[in-house]
Structures are given as structure tokens and as C-alpha cells.
């Protein structure tokens, strides 16, 4: 089911899921950040030239999304967190977030190993519990892209152990994000363009 405030172009070209009214919270309480997310998703194209390029480090696809958010004032962010009981201090480390702006945390998981979803969701849960973020957003691959990647002869590169929507949903439905409102977008072949 597509969340209420999602524009038709986004719901047509992305697989969209939400928990705990995340899209309504974004639209109402964080309209600038919501507009940023929608604008970046509308402008994004999954280019064949970037899909077929070799790996190593962050993919060109993830870099392009990072740059698009950075151009709108989003920043990579890591927090120094700890728990203090009486005078005893315990570190409670969080992992850095790919893109952060005004209490909205966003992760881009194009082709990492799927346990990265556990890290992201745990991070969102902890940051939400600490009242640092209000919403978590994840952008990943929709399973619909399997056919496209297979046709390109790239299935071995992007196989079942990488980040796909079907790997993310059971983790969320199992409570991986705790009480954090979540909105997730899966890139579909509707965004794919043959540019080579």
C-alpha cells in the first residue's frame, strides 16, 4: 500500500513502504526535508553506465544520491553518545548516517551486504530513542531490478546477499527499527535509463 502523501511519479517508479506514519510526519513536521527527498527521487536516474561499472568502495549510484542530498544541505553525521548512571559513564556508540538534516536520517543502501540493514535499523532505533531523529529513510533496490540486472549479465555482482527490498522488509516487520517511524524506497526499473 502506498502512503497517502506520496506523489504519483514516486509511487510509480519506486517501491514504497512506511511504518508509524513516517510520510505524514515528514510532510507535516519537516516539509523542507520532505521536499528534498521527493526532489532527489524525482531527479534520480539509474544509469546503465553506473550499474555496469566495477565495484570497490561506494558505488557511483550511491555517490550520485549522496551528492544530490548534499547539494540540498544534508550532511553525513555521527554522534558521540553515552549513557551516564550516577557517575558511571558507558559508551553507546552509533554508526554514522549517510545523510542527515533537521532530525531526519537517511541511508542509501545500493549494493552493500544485507546485514547493513541491521546496522541501519538499529542505529535509527537508538537515535530515535535518544530523541535525536524523528524519522528514518532508506533508499535501496526493489526486487523488480533482478530481471534488469540479470539481462545485463550482472546477477553475480548484485546477487541475493546484497541489499534488496525483500531483505529489508522482514527486518522492519520484525521490529528492527523499534519505535522509529520509517519510510523506505526501492528503486525500480522505472528509473533505469540506457545511457551507453
Summarize the structure in words.
With 196 residues, the protein is an alpha/beta fold. The protein has a single domain (24-193), classed as 3-Layer(aba) Sandwich (Restriction Endonuclease), CATH 3.40.91.20. It is 39% helix and 22% strand. It is built from 9 helices and 10 strands. It has helices at 8-13, 22-29, 31-43, 48-51, 60-70, 115-129, 145-151, 155-158, 165-173, and strands at residues 14-19, 46-47, 75-77, 82-85, 88-91, 97-101, 104-108, 135-141, 182-187, 192-193. The strands form 3 sheets. It has a 6-stranded mixed β-sheet, sandwiched between helices. Strand 7, helix 6 (115-129) and strand 8 (135-141) form a beta-alpha-beta unit. Helix 2 packs across helix 3 (31-43).
Compact overview of the structure:
This protein is 39% helix and 22% strand.
Sequence-ordered SSE layout with sheet pairings:
Elements: H1 8-13, E1 14-19, H2 22-29, H3 31-43, E2 46-47, H4 48-51, H5 60-70, E3 75-77, E4 82-85, E5 88-91, E6 97-101, E7 104-108, H6 115-129, E8 135-141, H7 145-151, H8 155-158, H9 165-173, E9 182-187, E10 192-193
Parallel strand pairs: 2-10, 7-8, 8-9
Antiparallel strand pairs: 1-9, 3-6, 4-5, 6-7
Helix pairs in contact: 2-3
Rg of Cα set: 17 Å
Strand order of the largest sheet: 1-9-8-7-6-3
Distance between the termini: 35 Å
The unreliable regions are none
N-to-C series of helices and strands: HEHHEHHEEEEEHEHHHEE
CATH class designation? Alpha Beta
Amino acid at each position: 500500500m502506498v502512503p497517502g502523501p506520496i506523489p504519483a511519479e514516486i509511487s510509480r517508479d519506486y517501491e514504497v513502504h512506511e511504518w508509524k506514519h513516517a510520510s505524514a510526519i515528514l510532510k507535516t513536521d519537516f516539509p523542507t526535508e520532505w521536499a528534498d527527498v521527493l526532489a532527489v527521487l524525482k531527479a534520480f536516474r539509474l544509469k546503465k553506465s553506473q550499474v555496469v561499472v566495477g565495484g570497490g568502495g561506494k558505488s557511483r549510484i550511491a555517490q550520485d544520491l549522496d551528492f544530490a542530498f548534499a547539494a540540498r544541505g544534508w550532511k553525513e553525521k555521527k554522534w558521540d553518545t553515552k549513557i551516564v548512571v550516577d557517575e558511571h559513564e558507558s559508551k553507546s556508540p552509533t554508526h554514522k548516517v549517510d545523510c542527515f538534516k533537521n532530525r531526519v536520517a537517511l541511508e542509501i543502501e545500493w549494493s552493500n551486504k544485507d546485514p547493513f540493514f541491521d546496522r541501519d535499523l538499529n542505529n535509527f532505533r537508538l537515535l530515535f530513542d535518544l530523541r535525536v531523529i524523528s524519522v528514518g529513510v532508506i533508499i535501496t533496490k526493489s526486487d523488480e531490478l533482478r530481471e534488469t540486472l540479470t539481462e545485463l549479465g550482472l546477477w553475480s555482482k548484485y546477487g541475493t546477499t546484497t541489499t534488496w527490498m525483500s531483505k529489508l522488509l522482514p527486518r522492519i516487520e520484525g521490529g528492527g527499527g523499534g519505535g522509529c517511524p520509517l519510510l523506505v524506497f526501492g528503486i525500480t526499473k522505472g528509473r533505469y535509463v540506457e545511457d551507453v
